[in-house]
Amino acid sequence: MRVLLMSGLALGLLAGGAAQAQTPSFPSSGAFGHIDDEAAQRGLAVYQGVCASCHSLNQLHYRDLAGIGLDTAQIAGLANAVKLATGQPATPDDVFKAPAAMSMGGAVPPDLSSIVAQRRDGTRYIYRFLTGFAPAPAGVTMLPGHYYNRAYPGGQVAMPPVLRDNAVTYADGTKATQAQEAADVAEFLTWASDPNLTARHVLGIRAGIFFAFLTLVALATKRRIWKQEG
Amino acid sequence: MQSEAKQGVACPYLIKDRAPGGAWHATLPTLLGALLALLLASGAVLAVYYNPRDAYGAVQMINREVNGGWLVLGYHNTGASLAFLALYAQLFRLLLTRGYRGPARFAWMLWVKLLAVLLLSGWLGFVLQGGAGGALSLTHASDAALTLPGFPGAVALWIFGGPSGPGTLARLLVFHVLLAACPVWVICWARCAARRARPAPEGRAVAFWPVYASQYFAALAALALFFTLLLAFAPHWGQSAQAMLPGDVLPMVISYPWYLQPVAHLAGLIPGDGGAILVVILAAATLYALPWLDRSNGAPPGRLYRGLTLLLGLDVLALGWASAPVLQIIFGIWFFIHFLVLTPLVTAAEAK
């Protein structure tokens, strides 16, 4: 079994290397990256329409969606459409409604609040994972209830492929291809994991410029004083 | 602003006893002090919101819900990383220049104590985040500590209160806070010791203001720049994604932050949880005993000694990086060989 998993992992790494070339660049990646609000909002639609039936988002409240550019009325409308277990509609201060507890082939669907931070190179990983489902290569014996995925460590995952073309209809008219949906939900989950990403980068640029200037002035001052004293 | 030496006696804390041309590395202890002060201040804010009964949720809450919480968390996280960087750099410089001998011996022993306190505090901080690696590490540590016999076992029972459970982090939070206050004292103590150990300056002394103040200011500004860039663009530098997993996930291998990784790998030298504690105590004792292991009798460090010290630096880095157990054992054994075998031999040979 271990040999099987190892060979699956090796295959997955090889295939993952090939798929990496096609991974799109994300606005959120890199030192100066920022969350693309439009992409994240489309990603929210994908999460709500597809992912939310199995995966929770326990660390997020509906009100937090202001962070990807939704206004108060939109958030209130979105929350109001959700029926809580009590039968009441959700309010913006409620946590995202979690799906009923379930088990897929023995695996519990993980909470997605911090999934991007919990994986190495998380944003790209989510994209590669969601677009990585493929028929199992010859010679790979699949575990019962598992699906072959090029990006998943070991190659066999209990989650079925869920993203397909037109799985959701985008409000902004963007064509909902499978790759587009995967990229958008990856951007949305990047924001969910790190809601302060944009603020942090802006702060870094501003404070970085200030401290770079201050360092230069301080060094020049030091040189001058030491020259006088020496 | 040129002062006479006697003014230095009247006002010992304002007059530096270094001659002009002071090296930048002499600002390291001050930078470390500034980082520890930042850790204390940010830690005080975090402690207000922290909840040991739901550590992972509390950190998430600080990061997401508390106004500016992510920034304070970043100060604490990056501050810890850079404090260790400053301390490791200082220790390495003292090793390279044999700054642990003679009257500076007392200061060296304080630096080793500071290392022990910071490592313990750093480990507690890692565990208090409630991540997957931290939870498993705590289970190992409390299991090992409770098997200790006699007095050490009683102390361990007092600290952990039994096997790791829901209440353990509440206890450890107290010790994290208590330990946090120690480095401030130790660092002041070490500065006094180093100042007393240094020979009286020949010729005129130089005033702290503005000569050394300008150097400290420039060093602090550069630190602030480096700190900002790390905090903003690489907030989780040196930490694995595993730290973000909740504590109920059981990892195969614990990934520690970079500053604990060499110690964690060194601890694997003797198998078993009890062996790990023994190795760490032995390593600390070895560093502590370094002034006596050095047989140089005041000779300046030779080329061979400096080469070996550089090699030791690389060895410790490699020890942190290595994931293969065989490599960890080789690098770990080299650490002890360097201090217990090579240092006495080489320093004695170079003294002749």
Can you lay out the helices and strands and say which pair or pack?
The complex is a heterodimer of chains A (230) and B (352).
Chain A: H1 2-20, H2 37-49, H3 72-80, H4 115-118, H5 122-130, E1 147-148, E2 156-157, H6 178-193, H7 197-229
Antiparallel strand pairs in A: 1-2
Helix pairs in contact in A: 2-6, 5-6
Chain B: E1 2-3, H1 5-10, E2 15-16, H2 28-49, H3 55-64, H4 69-96, H5 105-128, H6 132-146, H7 150-160, H8 168-197, E3 205-207, H9 208-233, H10 261-267, H11 273-288, H12 290-293, H13 303-321, H14 325-351
Antiparallel strand pairs in B: 1-3, 2-3
Helix pairs in contact in B: 2-4, 2-8, 3-4, 4-5, 4-9, 5-6, 5-8, 6-11, 10-11, 10-13, 13-14
Features:
heterodimer, A: 230 residues, mainly alpha, Cytochrome Bc1 Complex, Chain D, domain 2, two-stranded antiparallel sheet, disordered N terminus, B: 352 residues, Cytochrome Bc1 Complex, Chain C, 2 domains, 3-stranded antiparallel β-sheet, 3 strands
Short description:
The complex is a heterodimer of chains A (230) and B (352). Chain A has 230 residues and is mostly helical.
- Poorly predicted segments of chain B: 1-17
Main sheet: strands, sense, barrel of chain B = 3 strands, antiparallel
- How would you describe the oligomerization state of the chains in this entry? heterodimer
CATH topology (fold) name of the largest domain in chain B: Cytochrome Bc1 Complex, Chain C
Strand content of chain B: under 5%
Mean pLDDT reading of chain A: 90
Q: Which architecture of the largest domain in chain B would the CATH scheme give at its second level?
A: Up-down Bundle
* Percentage of β-strand residues of chain A: under 5%
CATH class of the largest domain in chain A: Mainly Alpha
Give me the Rg of chain A, rounded: 22 Å
The CATH architecture of the largest domain in chain A: Orthogonal Bundle
Report how far the terminal alpha carbons of chain A are from each other: 73 Å
Overall mean pLDDT of chain B: 88
Low-confidence runs of at least 5 consecutive residues of chain A = 1-21
Question: What structural class do helix, strand and pairing data of chain A support?
Answer: mainly alpha
Give helix % range of chain A. Answer: 40-55%
Radius of gyration of chain B: 22 Å
Provide the number of structural domains of chain B.
2
Order of secondary-structure elements of chain B: EHEHHHHHHHEHHHHHH
